[in-house]
Design brief:
disordered N terminus, oxidoreductase, EC 1.15.1.1, mainly alpha, three-stranded antiparallel beta sheet, single chain, 2 domains, minor pseudopilin epsh fold, Mn/Fe_SOD_C, about 10% strand, binds fe (ii) ion
């Protein structure tokens, strides 16, 4: 029974949507509800169960590579999802094979890895983070996105930042100021919305020493150059502006409510 539960949890936590939403821990369950993808989740889980080989896998997107045009271009999406994200998944699985036995047991879900992050080698941190971060990123974008967040998230943004425009300004600032490669985040930290950023493929769920951003992710923006260089070259600000046209507020709202 324990093995079945572990396996089921692993499958749930790593299978990400054919609808672009993340399946898994309680963190993600509301996303599924928002996207009405329970049926898809079951299909994916059944499929993953049949083909389960103990490996993490690349999630399918819920939209075509060109569906975020003209804001995020097809070529970038093809390479970003099909090459970069795939590489994180491949290298995560390879890195797990080299782990000592006492860590293998803790590598069966990304949540478990992040909870014991400081015990894992750097390759697991980089590639596990890369897998989680990108999976989240795909799920909080959609074609014809943008607009205004509704519900409790919209209220919380207004209460916390004064207005949606002010929130966008502060989030964009955090995205611009992240030196080199990394991610900008909106997280829930001690019950409050907080904007911040992390370097490389770190994320706010990782238990790491130091003062890094901690919290439950609601929004994530990849500010690695591979996310925008083909279309925007060095103009990160243009890419950030484009993000607001594809952001999936319903998915973010579901994460917030979870
Ligand atoms: Fe990326």
């Amino acid at each position: 029974m324990e093995n079945n539960n572990t396996r089921r949890n692993f499958i749930k936590q790593t299978a990400i949507l054919s609808t672009g939403t993340i399946i898994g821990s309680s963190l993600f369950n509301s996303v599924l509800a928002a996207e009405n993808t329970l049926k898809v989740e079951n299909q994916v889980m059944e499929s993953e169960s049949e083909n389960f080989q103990g490996n993490y896998s690349l999630p399918k997107l819920s939209y075509a590579y060109d569906a975020l045009e003209p804001h995020i271009d097809k070529a970038t999406m093809e390479i970003h999802h099909g090459k970069h994200h795939q590489a994180y998944v491949t290298n995560l699985n390879k890195s797990i094979e080299t782990l000592d036995n006492n860590l293998v047991e803790h590598s069966k879900s990304l949540e478990s890895i992040f909870e014991k992050m400081s015990k894992f080698p750097e390759a697991i941190r980089n590639n596990g983070g890369g897998h989680y971060n990108h999976s989240l990123f795909w799920s909080i974008m959609k074609p014809n996105g943008g607009g205004t967040p509704k519900g409790k998230l919209g209220d919380a943004i207004t209460t916390t930042f004064g207005s949606l425009d002010e929130f966008k300004k502060q989030f964009s600032d955090a995205s611009m100021k992240r030196f080199g490669s990394g991610w900008a985040w909106l997280v829930v930290q001690d019950g409050k919305l907080v904007i911040g950023s992390t370097a490389n493929q770190d994320n706010p769920l990782m238990r790491l020493r130091g003062k890094g951003l901690k919290g439950k992710p609601v929004l994530a923006l990849d500010v690695w150059e591979h996310a925008y260089y083909l279309k925007n070259q060095n103009r990160r600000a243009d890419y950030i502006a484009s993000f607001w046209n594809v952001v999936n507020w319903e998915a973010a709202e579901a994460l917030f409510n979870s």
